[in-house]
Design a protein that fits this description.
The chain is mostly helical. The chain is built from eight helices and two strands; from the N terminus they run αβααβααααα.
Length: about 180
């Protein structure tokens, strides 16, 4: 990557994206240690040889205030200035810092490894309502949607008519006619 390509505004944009990752209350002005470690991992600052996750945690602790749990963008730049010579050995401080900025520009938090619901054939077979028999079959309508309480219990008819009477609900009409 060529020098001078990474502007401070681009680096700050990446900082803000990682600062709000996973925290609904975050403003993007301060970053916690977990998100700083994620930034370093996702942007390939941690290479496993020169810079490890332990190095990142130690540098985070160095630049933050004594009682604070977060760092500001200025402290973030200090941390990157300390990480740059470790990551790019044999280069000048300024050249290493520019290459480190180049790794950060345009990056966003990756969502790799997030747990997804697994669709198993056994689960599909067990939840397929068209294959149900007996009393279980009555719990679902034709579309496979459950009927709720009406499908589980025999709800008594409390209308006052005998169960097999076909003219239920017609009494009021007969009385009005006379």
């Amino acid at each position: 990557m060529a020098e001078g390509l990474a502007s401070p505004a681009d680096v700050e944009t990446s900082f803000q994206k990682f600062a709000v990752h996973g925290d609904t209350k975050a403003t993007g002005k301060e970053m916690n240690g977990k998100n700083f470690a994620k930034l370093c991992k996702d942007c390939h600052i941690i290479d496993g040889k020169n810079v490890t996750s332990t190095d990142v945690d130690i540098i985070f602790s160095k630049v933050k205030a004594k009682s604070a749990r977060v760092i500001t963008f200025e402290q973030f730049k200090q941390a990157l200035a300390e990480l740059a010579p470790k990551r790019f050995k044999g280069r000048s401080q300024e050249e290493a810092l520019q290459q480190l900025y180049g790794l950060l520009v345009g990056k966003e938090p990756a969502n790799v490894g997030i747990t997804k619901a697994v669709k198993a054939a056994a689960v599909d077979r067990l939840t397929n309502t068209t294959k149900y028999t007996g009393s279980h079959k009555e719990r679902f309508d034709e579309s496979g949607k459950g009927k709720g309480k009406a499908g589980r219990e025999d709800i008594p008819d409390t209308s006052g008519y005998v169960a097999a009477y076909k003219g239920s609900g017609t009494y009021d009409d007969k009385v009005k006619e006379s």
